[in-house]
Amino acid sequence: MTQYSDDRVQDQQPGLEHEMSPPPEYMPRYPGSGRLEGRVALITGGDSGIGRAAAVLFAREGAKVAFLYLDEDDDARETLEAVRAEGADCIAIRGDVGDKPCCFDAVARVVGEWGRLDVLVNNAAEQHGQDAFEDVSEEQIAATFRTNIFGQMFMVQAALPHMGEGAAIVATTSVTAYRGEDLLIDYSATKGAILSFIRAMAHKLAPRGIRVNGVAPGPIWTPLIPASFPPEKVERFGKSSTLGRPGQPNEVAPAILFLSCRDSSFMTGHVLHPDGGEATAD
């Protein structure tokens, strides 16, 4: 069994994939079938983790892919190369989703390059583990909310003028929205807010033919994990799930693909749960 015992604790959020050991698995497992042929997708947090896995899978399914990342240039370069290796056009955009003008600039760049936007995947997030809630600073709360939920709202506001009937928005929430997590109280709260945002926007956009759904992953082996927890916590990561292990980014990306393409054309306001059974674990 793989040992998740990376002792190189990272001191920045959202973490660096190229420093992880073992490396996350992000490559798609199956040949593409053209489910996103001719579509244009923008993925936030696409440099690593779930975002990278979704970007490469979207490329394999025929999409043009743009992704927004914070400052992880080496990881972004690897994602860019992996997407292009699938034969897809790709744009990597450096910026902070918590900054509203950045979100609008990113969308403008995508539309300027390809003339349309069909799929928005709101995936970027940060989390900061704290044993005592009393030690969670106002600055940490503000940063976590700005990235995790403000950023999703800003991206939707920027994207909507360019999205038409048949477009899809997919948001990454978390198992912590359902179970909570005592080390990640502010993070869990943002993920609960995202869940409500998904449901509200699904009703709001249904008359326009735009579907809004989400995924609630966890526990998934991404850069957020060594960037958030001490080595002893990392070593136990995922073992509480019903399947007894953490998941990989390429085990979440197919759920995002499903919600982004016409396979899910009669679904909106729903959340899929690639979580190894953790949401129902005792």
If you had to describe this structure to a student in words, what would you say it looks like?
This protein is α/β, with parallel strands linked by helices and about 280 residues long. It has one domain: Rossmann fold (3-Layer(aba) Sandwich), CATH 3.40.50. The chain is about 35% helix and about 10% strand. The protein has eight helices and seven strands, in the order βαβαβαβαβααβααβ. Strands 3-2-1-4-5-6-7 form a seven-stranded parallel β-sheet, with helices on both faces. β1, α1 and β2 form a beta-alpha-beta unit. α3 packs parallel to α4 and α4 runs parallel beside α6. It starts with about 40 loop residues before the first strand and ends in a 10-residue tail after the last strand. The N terminus is likely disordered.
Strand content range: 5-15%
Domain unit count: 1
Please identify the top-level CATH class.
Alpha Beta
Look at the structure and name the CATH superfamily.
NAD(P)-binding Rossmann-like Domain
Helix and strand run: EHEHEHEHEHHEHHE
- The whole-number mean of residue pLDDT values reads 91
Secondary-structure-derived class: alpha/beta
Q: Unreliable stretches, pLDDT < 50, 5 or more residues? A: 3-8
- Main β-sheet description: 7 strands, parallel
Number of extended strands: 7
Which assembly state applies to the chains in this document?
Answer: single chain
Strand adjacency order, main sheet: 3-2-1-4-5-6-7
